[in-house]
């Protein structure tokens, strides 16, 4: 398929973009790592070589008080600018354009020196900010200007001024966080003064041929956020001050509404940028949950924006643009919006990467160079680890044969794709299967590997995965006791009254699956799902309600009255405490919407005709359920490992370690082995 809108050039005042694709801002923590700027230079260069028209860097603070964390990279001195030159030179040598994002965290900074328009603590931060004096406000503006001037000296083609997501500029704009009585607070004209002064003073200092992007919060999604009229008033004033591009920001970080997670239908918020676009004449960039060319093309064709911004999709595949342009969409390694290796790791202080592409942000370290000694390698197991290893090793020139005892590839991914909100796993499987074919991997389905049919190979990789762990429980042999694999393989249908033993990631997935069984659409979500999603989470996409909020709590209309579901765990911690930082709260909220009862400190006694007998504390209870689903972990499937004695054997994925099994670690392990074998 061709994408005429996506690949049409765009003329700015002094620049021309080769296509309508922007690589959006994305902090990787390389900015603070040893030799990090050298690594970032290669990271960005590969995305330019992959066809990206314009890059915006991760957020760089203009001063220490505006940093997100104590050691965050700054653009405050000439020495800071010197560090960035290798990035801009690398991008320009590859023929690309790059803008540096200036991000002042305000009350979102995770350190004791944070500042804000008012001393109001953020609900996601333990620190109370210092309220800026009027003189200090002017000083902060000076630091923004200084950062822009230094970015220009460092060779950047422009800057993006971060005015959304609840950061400092956004904090000045709304009464929720700005309760000042001076010229920087009060009515809207005063509250937007901070943003406008920053833009005006930067433009004076950098001249007309320096790109200015303003990241406008188009939908705050928090109480006492901006009205749509205020958003448009600010957009028009920003345009009048000479901004070249308006980028869309959706939601503050403290909002309790999903905006970028996998359960958000693709391009949900593009209609917001379309409404803003009707009121300004400068190009509009739209963002959030655009991960495939068909979606991007449709957004542009529908007049929702002039450009599309994608961040995580370029972690997943640096060649995204070239593949789309060269009619190789089926070979795009798609971002599945899981956040596991990118945002979750960044918030833990680790380097960002990507579940589907562990090489992301590790381009100087993890490479798949052609091998000087091609080998015949047998891979046993066609799950995430086996498929990933096969692709990477075949890419290096090894001859790979992949054995899978089931009738289809995928392993545990075939379970994941069935979970409501995880339909992007279909794309992951599509990429794997097409890439295996591209690299001439021989695939043997319905084949049980043995030492005999592996005898002719130089080396063997066991990626045989896991089996569900059985539970030692009186009555566990009752027909009503089943494993999560029985349910997700559709061997057994979920009952209407269910107790789920185990509240880890799989337990939550099974609860989601059971709660929406017979009602969920698990195929990749269409535009028709957007209205349902907005209704579920109380989002007003018509923008008639302040900040885009219809109500203060999520909608529970999806709850099915005829279902009773218990999600149980032995631990005393809150159910779901171990889930991922950026998405765990969403999963818990969704199960609450579905009426799932979550119980901790549960001791399992027995199963009988009455149901599941448990103790909570010392109090006995009987859960009168028709089905008990066991999600009590997995065990490595290693029955083949002792039979292979004549070749080197490598064990990866769940076969290597079943505890806390996830596709992220399985694929990373596979990639590291493939790079070295």
Automatic annotation (TrEMBL):
<dbReference type="InterPro" id="IPR051793">
    <property type="entry name" value="NADH:flavin_oxidoreductase"/>
</dbReference>
<dbReference type="InterPro" id="IPR001155">
    <property type="entry name" value="OxRdtase_FMN_N"/>
</dbReference>
<keyword id="KW-0411">Iron-sulfur</keyword>
<dbReference type="InterPro" id="IPR013785">
    <property type="entry name" value="Aldolase_TIM"/>
</dbReference>
<keyword id="KW-0408">Iron</keyword>
<keyword id="KW-0479">Metal-binding</keyword>
<dbReference type="InterPro" id="IPR023753">
    <property type="entry name" value="FAD/NAD-binding_dom"/>
</dbReference>
<comment type="similarity">
    <text>In the N-terminal section; belongs to the NADH:flavin oxidoreductase/NADH oxidase family.</text>
</comment>
<keyword id="KW-0560">Oxidoreductase</keyword>
<dbReference type="Pfam" id="PF07992">
    <property type="entry name" value="Pyr_redox_2"/>
</dbReference>
<feature type="domain" description="NADH:flavin oxidoreductase/NADH oxidase N-terminal">
    <location>
        <begin position="6"/>
        <end position="328"/>
    </location>
</feature>
<keyword id="KW-0285">Flavoprotein</keyword>
<dbReference type="Pfam" id="PF00724">
    <property type="entry name" value="Oxidored_FMN"/>
</dbReference>
<protein>
    <submittedName>
        <fullName>NADPH-dependent 2,4-dienoyl-CoA reductase</fullName>
    </submittedName>
</protein>
<dbReference type="InterPro" id="IPR036188">
    <property type="entry name" value="FAD/NAD-bd_sf"/>
</dbReference>
<feature type="domain" description="FAD/NAD(P)-binding">
    <location>
        <begin position="376"/>
        <end position="636"/>
    </location>
</feature>
<keyword id="KW-0288">FMN</keyword>
